[in-house]
């Protein structure tokens, strides 16, 4: 049996190594020059005996169900799974005979591995085992095996083929068949509604104990997940979705375990605290989600064509949408300010506020820059671009005043609209070439920049 010494923090647990095959996580690279994940590819044929799938079963004091459930899962995989597999029993500081049963299964079944942690926490167990696993696809399921095992191959197939980055079982999909009490049904649906309303989550079921992830994605994603308990799943999915990773959902048949030892009220409170923490981190841009960006596997929009700048079409569309909204925002501010001040001062105030908002929106949505790195510099450069726009629009107002001092207010607005549109085109060119240039570099160039 492999054991994990007690850790004093989630970060320490994430760094712990429980197997010689564990590779150093690539997230240690300089975050100022994030290296995108490689394009998804179908997993290569593994050598005979090498596991493609590592299924982790986190347990705490499960002496009654552990052996029966592990044998059932092992029998199912041996009969139906066409690739090598491993089952890892992650014991979370059990005080009953769970460790002895795990060790016995490890001795008897070559595909079973027993792992011991001295601290409780499902998230801690998954992070530690997954970080050290050498299998290219990592999964986990609850020990009660409430989910029909026939959904396991559909769960991991999109990860093996390279279609998706993560996969989850969903009890809330239209074609799922679920047997559970009204109380748990209400709590589950309410929790997922909270996630949709507060974190804009689009996945349907965060709490189903039936998930899988590619190892290359896990190596980047897990160090960003802080929770070590039940909220671990939700945090992982929210960050993956916000980073643009593809999450595959599988409708499942699921039967509730009436003997479950999960403390619903305490777990719900911990989950709500986690929602608040993650929402706040996303709002202030504290998470380096650009480390998780990756090109699609075979998307023709991402192919490099000579003479065609990469991503230009998508950036142009995004910039135009934001530019149109910024122009309306600017005109609204100008109209409101014009009632209390002169045209030049109203123009400058409206343009300043809309320029800051425009830079922030384009930084995140058009050019995909996330986190706080170089945020102040980007705003300073954006203000320089704003100064050019101010000169252009103020010059237009001065020219109008020289040509017609008694011009109507509607004429002022029309001139400013034309000048602002011209400034918008110039702003895009400067944003793309100067403020947010394409910093895709080779590893050697990144090292040189870091120095």
Automatic annotation (TrEMBL):
Residues 1-11 have a biased composition (Polar residues). Residues 319-436 form the GtrA/DPMS transmembrane domain. Its EC number is 2.4.1.117. It catalyses: a di-trans,poly-cis-dolichyl phosphate + UDP-alpha-D-glucose = a di-trans,poly-cis-dolichyl beta-D-glucosyl phosphate + UDP. Keywords: Endoplasmic reticulum, Glycosyltransferase, Membrane, Signal-anchor, Transferase, Transmembrane, Transmembrane helix. The keyword Endoplasmic reticulum applies. It is found in: Endoplasmic reticulum membrane; Membrane. InterPro entries: DPG_synthase, Glyco_trans_2-like, GtrA_DPMS_TM, Nucleotide-diphossugar_trans. Residues 1-32 are annotated as: Disordered. The keyword Membrane applies. Pathway: Protein modification; protein glycosylation. This is dolichyl-phosphate beta-glucosyltransferase.
């Amino acid at each position: 049996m492999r054991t994990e010494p007690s850790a004093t923090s989630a970060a320490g647990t994430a760094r712990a190594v429980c197997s010689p095959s564990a590779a150093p996580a690539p997230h240690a690279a300089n975050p100022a020059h994030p290296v995108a994940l490689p394009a998804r590819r179908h997993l290569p044929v593994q050598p005979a005996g090498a596991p493609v799938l590592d299924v982790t079963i986190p347990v705490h004091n499960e002496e009654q169900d552990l052996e029966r459930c592990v044998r059932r899962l092992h029998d199912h995989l041996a009969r139906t799974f066409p690739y090598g597999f491993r089952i890892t029993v992650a014991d979370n500081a059990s005080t009953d005979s769970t460790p002895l049963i795990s060790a016995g299964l490890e001795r008897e079944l070559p595909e079973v591995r027993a792992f011991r942690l001295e601290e409780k926490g499902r998230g801690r167990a998954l992070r530690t085992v997954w970080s050290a696993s050498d299998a290219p696809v990592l999964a986990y399921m609850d020990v009660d095996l409430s989910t029909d095992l026939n959904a396991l191959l559909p769960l991991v197939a999109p990860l093996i083929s390279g279609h998706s980055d993560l996969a989850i079982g969903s009890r809330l999909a239209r074609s799922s068949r679920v047997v559970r009490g009204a109380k748990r049904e209400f709590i589950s649906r309410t929790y997922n509604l909270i996630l949709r309303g507060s974190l804009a989550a689009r996945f349907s079921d965060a709490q189903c104990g039936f998930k899988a992830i590619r190892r290359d994605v896990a190596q980047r994603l897990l160090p960003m997940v802080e929770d070590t308990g039940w909220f671990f799943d939700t945090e992982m999915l929210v960050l993956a979705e916000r980073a643009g990773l593809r999450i595959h959902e599988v409708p499942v048949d699921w039967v509730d375990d009436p003997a479950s030892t999960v403390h619903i009220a305490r777990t719900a409170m911990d989950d709500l605290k986690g929602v608040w923490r993650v929402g706040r981190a996303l709002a202030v841009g504290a998470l380096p989600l650009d480390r998780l960006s990756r090109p699609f596997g075979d998307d023709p929009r991402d192919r490099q064509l000579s003479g065609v700048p990469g991503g230009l079409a998508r950036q142009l569309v995004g910039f135009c949408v934001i530019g149109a909204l910024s122009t309306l925002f600017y005109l609204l501010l100008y109209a409101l300010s014009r009632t209390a001040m002169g045209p030049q001062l109203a123009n400058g105030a409206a343009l300043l506020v809309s320029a800051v908002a425009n830079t922030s929106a384009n930084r995140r949505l058009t050019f995909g820059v996330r986190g706080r790195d170089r945020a102040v510099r980007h705003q300073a450069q954006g203000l320089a671009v704003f100064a050019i726009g101010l000169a252009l629009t103020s010059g237009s107002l001065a020219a109008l005043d020289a040509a017609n001092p008694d011009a109507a207010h509607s004429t002022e607005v029309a001139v400013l609209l034309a000048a602002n549109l011209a400034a918008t085109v110039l702003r895009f060119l400067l944003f793309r070439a100067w403020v947010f240039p394409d910093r895709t570099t080779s590893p050697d160039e990144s090292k040189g920049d870091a120095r």
